[in-house]
Amino acid sequence: MTNLMGKRELNKARKRAEIVNIATRSFFERGYAATTMSAIAEELGGSKATLWAHFGSKEELFEAVIDQQVESFSRDIDEVLTSQTYSKPALRRFCLRFLECMMRDNAVRLFSLILSEGERFPEIREMFYSRGPAKVRKCIIAFYATHVSEAEAHSLMQLTVSAISGYRSDVQLRPKRPTRAEQEEFVNCLVELIAARAEHEGDASLQP
């Protein structure tokens, strides 16, 4: 009986993953508004009841898509930030990883989707922000706060995120993607700027 239940749960998880993969492709290719539960059920094959047994609405399915994308992103960021105290080498490792994650195709496509349809569907913008960017920002603040005040850590987080997000937006407008060396040059310049400010603020906080 236990083996039977285990097999059922495994099959259920596999079917759920298949649905999320189909939905991800649909959302990225058609957009949020043009994606329908009926179209996903048709591509999935079988009855609509199978889809509805896993997800009760398009919003719930989109949440699962976001969670899948954010999970991979967060795992990579956590690897270089969790339990880390501020240092210039640690900052460089983080900025390189953050940029790498932001430049991934799925990250770009998800961001473009949120940007293009977030005004019409503010719920998906809020959903995305709370599940992804908000969590990453907290991790970055915690990293900087090992060296500077909480207020300064928040400012440095804003600077870091804005600089790397802006770089990605600039890259999307270019006819040719920058090389790895060019990306590293940008990160090196950014790290020098942030480190200079962080070290100055860190020294100031030690003053009597």
From TrEMBL:
<keyword id="KW-0805">Transcription regulation</keyword>
<dbReference type="InterPro" id="IPR050109">
    <property type="entry name" value="HTH-type_TetR-like_transc_reg"/>
</dbReference>
<feature type="DNA-binding region" description="H-T-H motif">
    <location>
        <begin position="36"/>
        <end position="55"/>
    </location>
</feature>
<dbReference type="InterPro" id="IPR039536">
    <property type="entry name" value="TetR_C_Proteobacteria"/>
</dbReference>
<dbReference type="Pfam" id="PF14246">
    <property type="entry name" value="TetR_C_7"/>
</dbReference>
<dbReference type="GO" id="GO:0003700">
    <property type="term" value="F:DNA-binding transcription factor activity"/>
</dbReference>
<keyword id="KW-0238">DNA-binding</keyword>
<keyword id="KW-0804">Transcription</keyword>
<dbReference type="Pfam" id="PF00440">
    <property type="entry name" value="TetR_N"/>
</dbReference>
<dbReference type="InterPro" id="IPR001647">
    <property type="entry name" value="HTH_TetR"/>
</dbReference>
<protein>
    <submittedName>
        <fullName>TetR family transcriptional regulator</fullName>
    </submittedName>
</protein>
<dbReference type="GO" id="GO:0000976">
    <property type="term" value="F:transcription cis-regulatory region binding"/>
</dbReference>
<dbReference type="InterPro" id="IPR009057">
    <property type="entry name" value="Homeodomain-like_sf"/>
</dbReference>
<feature type="domain" description="HTH tetR-type">
    <location>
        <begin position="13"/>
        <end position="73"/>
    </location>
</feature>
